[in-house]
Amino acid sequence: MIIVTGATGQLGRRVVESLLGRVPAERIGVSVRDPRKAKAFADRGVRVRQGSFADPASLAHAFEGASQVLLVSVDKMGEECVAQHLAAIEGAVAAGARRIVYTSQMGAGASSRFQACRDHAATEEALRTCGVPFTSLRNGFYATSAAHFVSHAPHSGEVALPADGPVAWTAHADLADAAAAVLLDEGRFEGPTPPLTGGRALDFAEIAGVVEDLTGRGIKRVTVSDDEFRQRLTGQGTPAPVADQLLGIFAAARAGEFATVDPTLAELIGREPRSLRTVLGEHLTTG
């Protein structure tokens, strides 16, 4: 049985949907914090069990009978994130899984300027020593993050962000199909994959132009200092440590950590990945 964690989130839900289009539902199980939110999957024959990385004891039941476990990384950064990933790895090993697939990120490395990439590197190191074969999906930076950063641009006429660099923005739907393809082809990758990216890397000056084209409104790229951006975030109620973590995205982009464009994702899913323009068109409103 293939167990998918985080199956009610943006990525995990799409992975389950992709798997359901390829294998019988009885071959799929999900581990979710709130089984009520996965009722639609249960109604289709997917095994739904409660499990949380923050509650390691719950994972024995959630992962029972697993041949493979897809560990979808948690939406946290720092020590808590890594600790939860380690608990999930231990749970998968204890359940007898013959393979662990983990959603990492391009740029994962101990010296990355972005905390999440350092967390992914620590998790990958734990996977290397866990005693079970693993595949680490080096996912491109989520295109929805770009959509979030420019969400106010149609109204303000500005994309006011720190200095950045090109990023290979990548759609959740494409990464979900890639994860499903890897789960169904156990010999495809051992260890980290090449970067799984969209077909083009864009910086926010280029993204401002895309927003302008989509909305028909003039959009100006305004570069603000890191300190000004931090102050804006904290003034809106963002905790200072979280603001610093978000700034790490821009520092890493300036250093080229997310600029690589690689054909592996297109090869896995059998089509060209969705463009950032397509994702922005789905998320932006012009009213």
Task: Please write out the topology.
Blueprint: E1 2-5, H1 10-20, E2 28-32, H2 39-43, E3 47-50, H3 59-62, E4 68-71, H4 79-94, E5 99-105, H5 115-128, E6 134-139, H6 143-149, H7 153-156, E7 158-161, H8 172-183, E8 191-192, H9 204-215, E9 220-223, H10 226-235, H11 240-254, H12 264-269, H13 276-283
Parallel strand pairs: 1-2, 1-4, 2-3, 4-5, 5-6, 6-8, 7-9
Helix pairs in contact: 1-8, 4-5, 6-13, 9-13, 10-11
Describe this structure in words.
Helix 1 (10-20) crosses helix 8. This protein has 287 residues and is of the alpha/beta class. It has a domain at 2-139 and 172-192: Rossmann fold. The strands form two sheets. The protein has a seven-stranded parallel β-sheet, with helices on both faces. The chain has helices spanning 10-20, 39-43, 59-62, 79-94, 115-128, 143-149, 153-156, 172-183, 204-215, 226-235, 240-254, 264-269, 276-283, and strands spanning 2-5, 28-32, 47-50, 68-71, 99-105, 134-139, 158-161, 191-192, 220-223. This is NmrA family transcriptional regulator. InterPro entries: NAD(P)-bd_dom_sf, NmrA-like, NmrA-type_oxidoreductase. It comes from Streptomyces fumanus.
